[in-house]
């Protein structure tokens, strides 16, 4: 028959419970580690310095977490980083590695970039020549110290003295600042007009862009016209020369024949004045000429004779009407 727990030794029960609890904790801690070691492979990386890298920091391949840093050890003039990567990650013989900044608080990670053919064997090392570390504060301090040592303090003092001696007048500087303030006020006052101007400029630019094909064609036509003018340059020059020669000859002709040309021009002017004075009679004549020509055409159009209607023989009708021989004349 089993004894109830209240009748058993509490010390033994506590000891057994502690052992079971420790076993569970050990199992909970050891199982993930065992799984991690079972699915990862050991590698090493040589760095110029640790650059803030610590054990358990992540290892990334192509931006994907693929392992963890296990150890950070000093090896004479370099640091040897031990890490474990997933089995399915193949590292070529030209693989590179570098320490990168993961957060603004200074947490780092190891970035591995597989490259090259072949494969680094398990436990292999990425040498120092193919690794890089970020620029650290120590490097910055050393660079600053080196730069400071190279400075020529005498020349620096002379430069400062020169700047102090050639500093602008305070009044001029104040006037310049006031001018800048006034210009700013003007821009602020006319901001709407400036916006309208810029909008108009943008509209013109958009129109030009939309019509760029037409502009290109127009420029091409202009180029053709210019080319044609250049090709016709000799012809135009000869035409101008001939016009000059003709003008000279006409002037010479007028100078030589002025005594004969002047009366001719006067007579032409007289004829023109006569025609102007008698333009009404000439107009009436032209008006009557049309029916007269029509009657003549009707009379002579039937053959080589004239058709004439003469009820009183060769006596015109007008005379017959005048003397009252024919009645009904109007």
From TrEMBL:
<dbReference type="InterPro" id="IPR052336">
    <property type="entry name" value="MlaD_Phospholipid_Transporter"/>
</dbReference>
<protein>
    <submittedName>
        <fullName>Phospholipid/cholesterol/gamma-HCH transport system substrate-binding protein</fullName>
    </submittedName>
</protein>
<feature type="domain" description="Mce/MlaD">
    <location>
        <begin position="40"/>
        <end position="114"/>
    </location>
</feature>
<dbReference type="InterPro" id="IPR003399">
    <property type="entry name" value="Mce/MlaD"/>
</dbReference>
<dbReference type="GO" id="GO:0005576">
    <property type="term" value="C:extracellular region"/>
</dbReference>
<dbReference type="InterPro" id="IPR005693">
    <property type="entry name" value="Mce"/>
</dbReference>
<dbReference type="Pfam" id="PF02470">
    <property type="entry name" value="MlaD"/>
</dbReference>
């Amino acid at each position: 028959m089993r004894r109830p727990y209240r009748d058993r030794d509490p010390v033994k029960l506590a000891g057994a419970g502690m052992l079971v609890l420790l076993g569970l904790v050990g199992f909970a801690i050891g199982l993930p580690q065992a799984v991690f070691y079972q699915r990862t492979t050991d590698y090493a990386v040589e760095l110029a310095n640790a650059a803030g890298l610590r054990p358990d920091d992540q290892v990334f391949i192509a931006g994907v977490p693929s392992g963890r840093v296990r150890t950070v050890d000093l090896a004479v003039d370099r640091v040897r980083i031990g890490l474990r990567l997933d089995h399915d990650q193949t590292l070529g013989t030209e693989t590179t590695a570098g320490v990168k900044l993961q957060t603004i608080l200074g947490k780092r990670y190891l970035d591995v970039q597989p490259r090259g053919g072949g494969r680094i064997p398990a436990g292999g090392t990425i040498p120092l020549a193919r690794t890089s570390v970020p620029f650290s504060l120590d490097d910055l301090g050393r660079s600053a110290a080196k730069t400071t040592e190279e400075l020529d303090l005498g020349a620096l003092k002379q430069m400062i003295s020169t700047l102090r001696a050639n500093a602008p007048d305070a009044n001029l500087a104040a006037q310049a600042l006031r001018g800048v303030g006034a210009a700013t006020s003007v821009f602020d006052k006319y901001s709407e007009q400036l916006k309208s101007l810029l909008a108009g400029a943008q509209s013109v630019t958009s129109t030009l862009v939309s019509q760029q094909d037409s502009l290109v064609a127009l420029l091409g036509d202009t180029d053709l016209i210019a080319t044609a003018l250049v090709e016709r340059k000799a012809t135009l020059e000869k035409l101008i020369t001939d016009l000059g020669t003709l003008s000279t000859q006409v002037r010479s002709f007028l100078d030589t024949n002025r005594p004969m040309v002047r009366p001719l021009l006067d007579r032409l002017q007289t004829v023109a004045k006569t025609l102007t004075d008698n333009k009404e009679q000439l107009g009436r004549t032209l008006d009557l000429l049309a029916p007269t020509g029509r009657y003549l055409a009707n009379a002579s159009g039937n053959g080589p004779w004239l058709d004439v209607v003469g009820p009183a023989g060769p006596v015109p009708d007008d005379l017959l009407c005048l003397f009252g021989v024919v009645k009904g004349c109007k």
